[in-house]
Write a structure and sequence with these properties.
By secondary structure, this protein is an alpha/beta fold. It has seven helices and ten strands. It has a six-stranded mixed beta sheet with strand order 6-7-8-3-9-10, sandwiched between helices. A four-stranded antiparallel beta sheet has the order 2-1-4-5, covered by helices on one side.
């Protein structure tokens, strides 16, 4: 049986307001196995962003169980949770979150500072990853000297620098044009083929179709969990084959 990277059971999340508790997540159950590629979808206010924050150990559920890579998060000390998070998860955000005054090399290497890795090794790993995402010639550039798509590639390289088993991506193409978005999704596809588990939040159906599985939230609940069907030469319309 394939090992799960994420397993949540009867997860609830309430936020306290002046009028009392406001429920955001309501009895969510989900298992994501190693090597899976999942798109989390749903309208604004459906709970998907709160759910992703809990998966990333950036927020805590009101009740329920979350097991991350075999570790029951609720019963762990804060330092232990931070250690598992830094070792297991790479984060990619819509806004890139790069340091404007630092080189691309230093941006990618930054997470290794907190891991106690010496500077020469940090830079070696960062350079390898920048080359992997096609930016090996720009290691000394700053974020404002490259395009938005290139900045997102830097953010992906940074997410990979600790060799995570899981990437959590929050609207990773939200600030990109359609052509650049496709390039970024192709990169995610290659990373998934290498065995990295990917979970991404997106509002865009065409972006979600790159994933192997789509999980849809509505009013704090999962209302749909389906495998993405990809067309094959046997199922394509003959008139479309010339365009594939």
């Amino acid at each position: 049986m394939q090992k799960s990277v994420i397993e949540v059971s009867h997860l609830f999340k309430d936020y306290q307001t002046a009028a009392g508790p406001f429920p955001v997540l309501k009895d969510v159950n989900l298992r994501i196995d190693s090597g899976d590629y999942v798109a989390i979808m749903g309208p604004s206010g459906s709970g998907k962003s709160t759910f992703m924050n809990i998966l990333g150990c950036l927020d805590k559920p009101t009740k329920g169980q979350y097991v991350l890579d075999g570790h029951p998060v609720a019963t762990m000390e804060e330092n232990a949770v931070a250690g598992v998070r830094n070792k297991t998860i790479g984060f990619v955000f819509q806004g890139f979150n790069l340091l404007a005054r630092s080189s691309l090399l230093d941006n990618v290497a930054l997470p290794l500072v907190y891991s106690g890795i010496e500077k020469p090794e940090r830079h070696r790993r960062a350079k390898v990853l920048l080359e992997k995402v096609g930016l090996g010639k720009h290691i000394n550039s700053r974020p404002n000297q490259i395009s938005g798509g290139q900045q997102q590639r830097v953010a992906i390289a940074r997410a990979l620098v600790n060799n995570p088993r899981l990437i959590l991506a929050d609207e990773p193409t939200g600030n990109l044009d359609s052509v650049t978005s496709e390039e970024i999704m192709a990169l995610f596809g290659e990373l998934n083929k290498e065995g990295i588990t990917i979970v991404l939040v997106t509002h865009e159906t065409d972006i979600a179709e790159h994933a192997k599985r789509q999980v849809r939230f509505l009013d704090g609940k999962i209302v749909e969990d389906t495998l993405t069907e990809r067309p094959t030469p046997d199922t394509l319309d003959p008139q479309e084959i010339d365009h594939v």
